[in-house]
Amino acid sequence: MEIENLRFLTKEQALELESQFGTPIFVYSQQEIEKRADTALAFPQAYGITVRYAMKANPNSTILKILKKKGIKIDASSYYEVKRALGAGFKPEDILLTSQELPSEDQFKEVILGGTDFNACSLNQLEFFGKLFPSRKVSLRFNPGLGSGGTTKTNVGGNTSSFGIWFEHTNEVKKILKKYDLKVKRVHTHIGSGSDPEVWKAVARYTLEYAEIFPEAEIVNLGGGYKVGRMLDEKSTDFQKIGEPVRQLFIEFFEKHGRKLHFEIEPGTSLVANTGAILSTIMDKVSTGEKGNTFLKLNTGMDTNTRPSLYGSRHPLIVVHKSKESKNTVKEFVVVGHCCESGDLFTQEFGGEISKRKLEDCEIGDLMVMEGTGAYCSGMSTKNYNSFPESAEVLIANDGKFHLIRKRQELSQIFQNELDVESIL
To answer: Could you report the per-residue pLDDT of 124-183, keeping only the tens digit for each?
Structure first.
């Protein structure tokens, strides 16, 4: 395996960031976020496109505002994400709520009457919507019967997934629509995070069939989950390559049915994954003998990035020496986090087996940059495990200046909501 290199940070910036903000911290690049937004907006389309950011990937308000300025809208996975998007300045009509859990009736009325679009993900959700909002437009998320994912945990299509209305239940859908005089505005599918091009094209065909079944549909949303290569030996989805055949399908649909369908995608990982890094410090270096391993222990862990422990995911690791001179010596290390948990392991195989990584030799106190952590890290961490405070987040603006966009959590904030029950003890 090749030695990984820094992506958007320089060694000098890493050292200055550590001096100014300490470690561990998340670091994001405004320039890189905007570049990937432009790539998504250039996705091949026939009759108009909307790019919705899957904000669960990273809901920091500064990142939301950067994407908003680029003209990107929002895919929200909960009532609470809707509220955060509104707080970041998005209009209600810029937001599509696609949620596993329905909000309370009051919350639901608040956001729908406010103008947020709703995407029904089950027959029960569609029924609930119809009772509250008869004669309105609604979106339908279907499970097309197949999916794609790097692992079974990132595959959200097929009969092992609870996401979406099962494709064989269209008759039940029609009954509910008729019962409440609902009109279908949008049909939607999302198959997972593998984005195999052939599977994706097949799902596009199936989704257009739903648009044919529901002739009042104006929009076809093909979700997101585009593969992003974090490591040098991993490939990323080429939007132009997978998008052009789909564009042709939309043209064929128009020629057959006379309807120009608006196209939507919902990238999350591809917009922000490689725009962020975690800057940490090597706090210890231990050996388990000649037949064992040399471990590098970082002052960060699954409380900051849980992807390796959850999915067996790999992230590039780059040593930044505090001294001016590099050792130029490459050795094999096992890199672990600071949590008291055997799964807090940054160098592992997909099955969770320990693995070694070739890195420049280093000393305690040197820095370690973990790349590819802009998506599903800060927002999906096992925050406060072992009572470690939430890490700070810093943005490198287009002018090269550093801006703190999330403070490091104070210890008192971790337990401030706990209640004193001494009277019953």
So the answer is: 999 999 999 999 999 999 998 764 444 343 334 456 778 899 989 999 999 999 999 999
**Residue 234: DSSP 8-state:** -
> How many whole angstroms from its chain centre is CA 78?
14
Let me know if 121 is a catalytic residue. Answer: no
Q: Report residue 197's pLDDT band, with 50, 70 and 90 as the boundaries.
A: low
> Distances in Å between the alpha carbon of 217 and those of 36, 209, 352?
29, 11, 44
Q: Is the pTM of this model over 0.90?
A: yes
Task: Judge contact between 51 and 25, C-beta under 8 A.
Answer: no
Q: Which residue is listed with tokens 């003998």? A: 289
Question: For residue 100, which of 124, 133, 136 has the smallest C-alpha distance?
Answer: 124
Active-site choice (339, 340, 362, 377): 340
Q: How far is 386 from 345, CA to CA, in rounded Å?
A: 15
In the chain, DSSP finds a helix count (H) and a strand count (E) of 12, 18
pLDDT digits (tens, 9 = 90+) for 70-104: 999 999 999 999 999 999 999 999 999 999 999 99
Average pLDDT score over the chain: 92
Q: pLDDT tens, 316-327?
A: 999 999 987 666
Rounded to a whole number, what is the largest CA-CA distance in the chain?
74
Structural domains of the chain in order of their starting residue, each with its CATH number: 11-24+273-410 (2.40.37.10), 31-267 (3.20.20.10)
- Helix ranges (H only) for 42-169 are 61-69, 79-87, 105-114, 123-132
**What distances in angstroms separate CA 424 from CA 50, 103, 417, 421, one per listed residue?**
56, 34, 18, 6
Q: CA–CA separation, 322 vs 310, rounded Å? A: 31
Angle at 45 between CA 251 and CA 188, to 5 degrees: 90
- Which tokens belong to 81? 């994400």
Instruction: Encode 349-373: b = buried (16+ Cβ within 10 Å), e = exposed.
Output: eeeeeebebebbbbeeebbbbbbbb
CB atoms within 10 A of CB 114: 13
